[in-house]
Every structure is written in structure tokens, then in C-alpha cells.
Amino acid sequence: MAEEQKVLTVNIVTPSGIVYDHHATLLVVPAMAGQLGIMANHEPIITPLEIGEIRVKRTDDPAREDAIAVNGGFMEVSHNVASIVADSAERARDIDITRAQSAKERAQNAIKTASEHNDTDELRRAQIALQRAINRINVKNHLL
Fold this sequence. Notes:
alpha+beta, ATP Synthase, domain 1, Single alpha-helices involved in coiled-coils or other helix-helix interfaces, 2 domains, 5-stranded mixed barrel, ATP_synth_F1_dsu/esu_N, CF(1), ATP synthesis, transport
């Protein structure tokens, strides 16, 4: 009988290209149904993702956990490969906290303006922008 593989390959791709490609022992993603943990030899699955943090426990350094901010997308797991296609994704180490704070402030101002003008479409866009900015800030602070 063949020995089961204990490694999961994790790939994260955005329209801009490959953001992440490593081997892992554990992957945690923000699925629509809640946090989903994936390990090697997981049954095939396809799931949509929400705005949130992806965490990857790497095989090359068991004490290391990578954090990646994603803004929606989906994940497919099959044959010990987790392929994530995200609208956008940013590794914690690459997040500019000043830029993320500015985006948060802009979104908060846009929410206030949209609320004052009863513009529901703009309000929804601003709320999503705020979620994304807060997610980036939280992922960056997770690294610290």
C-alpha cells in the first residue's frame, strides 16, 4: 500500500499573477460557511471565499505561519493541491500599514457621505472597501 502524502501545495493566484506558492501541513481559509482547515489528503472540495485571512503552516519551518489577506474568490482542493483564485491577495509582509489605514479612513468618510445622501449603492461599495482595509490591517498586525 502506498504511503499517504503529508504535504499540501498551496497556490494563490490573482488577476495580477501568482501571490503565493508553498508547501504546507495546514491551510486555513475564510470560506463562506466559516473558517475551513485543510490538510494533506483532504477530499476534493470547491468553496467560495470571503474577505479574510488565509493562514498557511509551512513544511519548511514548522514554527512559521504565513498570513495572506484575500478579498474574496474561491478555492479548489484536489490531489494535495489547494488552488486559490482570489480577486486580490497580499502577503502580510507586503502590506503597507499606512496605506491600509488611509484606505480605512477614506472608506469611513465614504460611508458617512453615502449615508447622508441615502445612496445605497455607494454605501455598499464603501462598506466593502472598509472590510478590505480592516482585513489588511488585521493581517499585517497578526504578523507583528
